[in-house]
Amino acid sequence: MTTAQTAQFHPDGRLRHLLTLEGVPRQTLLHLLDRAGQIRDAAVGRVSRREVLAGTAVCTLFFEPSTRTRSSFQLAAMRLGADVLNFDASTSSTRKGETARDTLKNLEAMGVRGFIVRHPDDGAVAALAAEAGEGTALVNAGDGRNAHPTQGLLDMLTLRQAKGADFSKLKVLIVGDVKHSRVARSDLHALRTLGAGEIRVCGPAELLPGDEVTAGCIVGHDLDAMLEGVDAVMMLRLQRERMEEGLVPSLEAYHARYGLTTQRLRRAAPDAAVLHPGTINRGVEMTDEVADGPQSWVLRQVANGVAVRMAVLEHLLG
């Protein structure tokens, strides 16, 4: 097991941190998804649950930019009644040379119990979790290309809403830059644990990872062929730096081969759900007609993010 897998559990098997979905038992995943579904009314502001974390200090500790994830976690913590501190590395003592560990320990000394951490380096959140004191919980809000567990959970919740709780008959296709995507890794871990019937992975050869990531998946480079009969299409953001690295010739060329259009979508099952973690590069990963169309579940994913993150914070700190 990896450091993250072992570090995130108490000796009795309960979650202490949420660092990765790899190795998280099916029962725990289902519990978090069920709980997120139950409190979705609270997540969108219709029901108050502010007593759950009243008096608990939670810090969003972000060493990398974010809009949806950070805002979603802030709302989740606030709707549970937590006192929320927002840490921005660009305006903090990290610019003076303070290490991430020292930042964590100083905030811990002020009484902060929950840390939501985004970091550009693989494994950085697990390393911080190893330094955390008893009673402190960390949630990985994305580290390098390693993991983004709450995004994986909200994607699974959205799939359940679109397709039902039984994943065993589902054919799910993940498209794009899987090699550099922490979202794809977390989605793959969750889909395997939840027993997805068939997982397909599609993208340019230069943007696909090795067999250790895609084990058990059907891997291909022809999007038209891979779309045939799938129940859900999970598109990934193309990071524009891939063009600078020479891995993608141009945005236009990428869209021509791997962009999802209404015509291409007809190859999937008639009621196939389309997901995307954001930010969408419209006209690159998908057209406006698909992004805003009747099969798009993208905005539901965003709404589900608050519910999932409420469920995770409640589970770890409540």
Structure, explained:
Helix content is 40%, strand content 15%. The chain has 318 residues and is α/β, with parallel strands linked by helices. The strands form 2 sheets. Strands 7-6-5-8-9 form a 5-stranded parallel beta sheet. Helix 4 (68-79) crosses helix 15 and helix 7 packs across helix 8 (182-193). It is globular and about 55 Å long.
**Helical percentage:** 25-40%
What would you call the quaternary organization? single chain
Query: What are the secondary-structure elements, in order, as H or E?
Result: HHHEHEHEHEHEHEHEHEHHHEHH
Give the tally of β-strands: 9
In the sheet with the most strands, the strands line up as 7-6-5-8-9
Largest sheet features: 5 strands, parallel
Report how far apart the termini are. 27 Å
Percent range for β-strand residues: 5-15%
The mean pLDDT is: 92
Helix segment count?
15
Shape: globular
Structural class: alpha/beta
Q: Residue ranges: pLDDT <50 for 5 or more in a row? A: none
Radius of gyration, rounded?
Answer: 19 Å
